Amino acid sequence: MPSFTYDGVTLDYIDEGEGDPVVLVHGFGSNKEMNWVGPSWTSALKRAGYRAIAFDDRGHGRSSKFYDPADYDLAKMAGDVVALMGHLGIPRADLIGYSMGARVVGYTAVVHPERVRSAVLGGIGERFIDGPAGRPIIAEALEAPSLDDVTDPVGRVFRKFAEQTKSDLKALAACMRGERKVITKAQAAAIRAPVLIAVGTADDIAGSGETLVKLIPGSRFLPIPGRDHNRAVGDPVFKQGVLDFLARRP
Q1: Out of 50, 160, 175, 184, which could bridge 45 as a Cys pair, Cβ 3.0 to 4.6 Å?
Q2: What is the 3-state secondary structure (H, E, C) of 151-216?
Q3: C-alpha to C-alpha distances, 193 to 106, 116, 183, nearest whole angstrom
Q4: Would you say residue 200 lies in a domain?
Q5: CATH number of the domain bearing residue 234
Q6: What is the per-residue pLDDT for 133?
């Protein structure tokens, strides 16, 4: 896998296919392979004539790990997206994010609007504004000696998933504590790139997608039938909805 380093951060990425570039930003505790390669996002984009670029967020996968929550400020994570685009010589791209990655994509659209041709916010609804609930509980679950020591059900879900992905638990705990910059309603309302919001109808983590659509002018909502937060990622309805959106956007 190729990687590049800037400002003390090494980001591991994949860059495949030809055509308009699409940058994919994964969710918390995941990685590019689990979020995008395994569920066939990269192959679907390539078949549709796009250049698929996915990377491991800082603190995740093969990218740099940090243990100070300040290193996971949302502005820094959005800066990673822009830095990768610069490294690859891409002035403007379509961005697709899921869950935490959707907040990163959305914040990139807020602070670097000239770099965002369109934005897909997957697995995020009204939590786009106030971030995930239960941050301290999740961080504490990641820092616990073992899964058996975690009693909170939400904490157990996140801890179990992090262990399945063989993640650096301390880095993820720092990320959970640090990725807390608030995206205001005014900032969301100022986004001018075309936006697609996609949330599973059984997702009890993302918050209401319909509420977020009302905050971002001109955005569209794609419900993913019967899918919860984890299972919505690879759903064919989600993929086809994104491909249709990309085909229609200016």
Answers
A1: 50
A2: CCHHHHHHHHHHHHCCCCHHHHHHHHHHCCCCCCHHHHHCCCCCEEEEEECCCCCCCCHHHHHHHC
A3: 10, 7, 16
A4: yes
A5: 3.40.50.1820
A6: 62
89-145 pLDDT tens trace: 999 999 999 999 999 999 999 999 999 999 999 999 998 987 666 688 999 999 999
Q: For residue 111, which amino acid is it?
A: V
Domain that holds residue 31: 3-131+181-248
CA–CA distance, 224 with 228 (Å, rounded to integer): 9
Q: Are 118 and 93 in contact (CB under 8 A)?
A: no
Please state the φ and ψ torsions of residue 23, each to the nearest 5 degrees.
-100, 130
Structure token pair of residue 62: 């093969």
Answer whether residue 159 is part of any domain.
no
Q: Alpha-carbon distance 174 to 59, whole Å?
A: 9
Question: What is the 3-class SS of 232-245, one letter each residue?
Answer: CCCCHHHHHHHHHH
Number of C-beta neighbours around residue 250 at 10 A: 6
The two three-digit tokens of residue 186, written as one number: 């005014």
* CB-count burial class (<10 Å; 0-12, 13-18, 19+) for 35: buried
- Geometric angle at alpha carbon 207, from 206 and 211, rounded to 5°: 130
What is the chain's alpha carbon radius of gyration, rounded to the nearest angstrom? 17
Kindly report, residue by residue over 159-195, the tens digit of the pLDDT.
999 999 999 999 999 999 986 667 899 999 999 999 9
Cβ atoms 220, 246 nearer than 8 A: no
